[in-house]
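The records we work with from here on pair a chain with its fold. Here is one such record, which you should read through line by line:
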Amino acid sequence: MKVISVLLFVLAAAQLGYSRPQAGRPVSSTARNPIPGLLRQPKMDLLGITCAACTVIAGVTDQLAEVHGESYGKALQRFCNALPSPYSGLCGAFRLIFGVQITSSLNKGETPDTTCMAMKLCSEPANGAGMCHLYPSKHAKGASAEEVRAHVDQLIRELPAATRAVDPRLNICDIPLLGSLICGYLNVEAFAINLPADDDDDDGFSDKRTLRGSDWRGKDCSDRNANIYPGRKPSFGDNVADTNCNGIYGVDPGNNRPFEEALCENSQAKGVVVLGDSVAANFHVPGEWFNASLINSDLFKNLTYMMDNSLNWPHTSVYTGFENVTWSIIDGTTDSVYLRMRERNLCNHRDYQNLGVNGATMMEANGFAQNLRRNSNNDKSSLVLFAYIGNDVCDYDVNNIPHSLDQMTTAAEARVALVETLTTLDRKLAPGSHVVVIGVADARPFFAGIHDQIHPFGSLRRDVTYNDFYTWLSCLDINPCPGWLTRDDRIHNYTAQRVSELNEALEKTVAEYKNRFQNLEPVYLANPIYEVIARQEALGGKGWQLVEKFDGFHPNQKGHKLLAEVAWDAMEKTHPHVLGPINPNNERIRTLFGDQGGHI
């Protein structure tokens, strides 16, 4: 297995650090970031992530001790034992280095926040600043910065002498021995690659699931032959071999005609491609991992598989999902644009490519489009979803009023990015292809009502809300989306203003370039978030119930399924021609070829 990561894959901050610097914009000079494959957001402070990781481990230890009525030392060991190898070993190394400090501080009644300050893995508050804390503060409530620092200094003096020799503002990578292991392992292939790692014939497809394999792109049915891959036009009617991996091949003995020709040739088969962000990739960190009442080894048994997919679930996503996962850490079934395109025409089997990247923006879309494996002459046409629906408006700068929106993508930048991407796609796609440009989401209704709900960190004592979580992230300068992850409606409204500007630019650009391309036609689809919320409420639910439990940011599995339904209905209503006709041969294909070889 190529991916060996780490307990401190930043548990609490796992979703925080995957964003890439936007093109042409400088990376913050304060972000000491030696792991570009994982931590990419311009303002992401590695020191803040170090603090977050410490706080989460101390918090889980504190709660496990209460749940099981055991010492803090045994609770920390319990947590490490719940992790599979090699993570359990790295957790054990962390426990050997920091276990005494954590247990000593917690035994004195300190919170996880002040515990990590005493360990110098979190900063003490600056003059005039409040203390960053996730858990209810015992000593800092109403206290000045000076009083908090004095209290933390006293804790440091009370620590065992052997544990005090730590540099101030220590970050993960500075920790002797353990730091080099962690920061070496954090730059794992899964978080940096955009093409399959296991691809013997170098055709852009794989017969392995993870590391950008068949969970992301249709399974290669012959990974030793570069002329056989999902989505290609059949070779000689696939009379002998299944060259496009859709499970349809051979010759009809009744008329000596290849089945591929008879069943698929005039069906207007079309593959599904998505260019997008972490919603497209379906980023998911289970909230159960941080609920001390639930933690056990069964919850983490698939951790290596998940890390190999960079904590994404493309195989259950709104655009390219194909599998119903029955693990306890997934709540909901799968529906997707790909599954509906497949049901419409079974000749589309296995023809999908998910190019979603955590943290990606429109300005990077053209670069990611280079990873599309499609040939305008040899392959079938495609339905491409251009779905950068969130990160372009995340960089609200609360410290730079009146220029708070300056780091967000502008309408002019969005227009250029879209035209560049369409131009690249036109060179790659076969004639008859379509690109559905999906608008950026105005996420105000998505997050309405979530702020007072209990976050998994507070599930045991009901003492940490999503508002506490968002405020803590912002205080540590690791909030992945300050434009939305805040209680401040003023910021929400400013962010929504930029959303409106971007969507207007996208829609106008699509109209302007509608007939400019040789192989593709772009169409615009308004973001369906309002209809998604309306349907959720019609079912008796609330919008925030579609939000991921842990990160409080992405749609959860039920959200993905509802998004697929609504997006499909919208395309059928406004742009039905992009979907292609229903194949009248579907029943015969089922009779002859069953599940067509499946997906796995």
Remarks:
- The mean pLDDT is 86.
- The CA atoms of residues 123 and 232 lie 55 Å apart.
- The longest helix spans residues 489-512.
- DSSP finds 18 helices and seven strands in the chain.
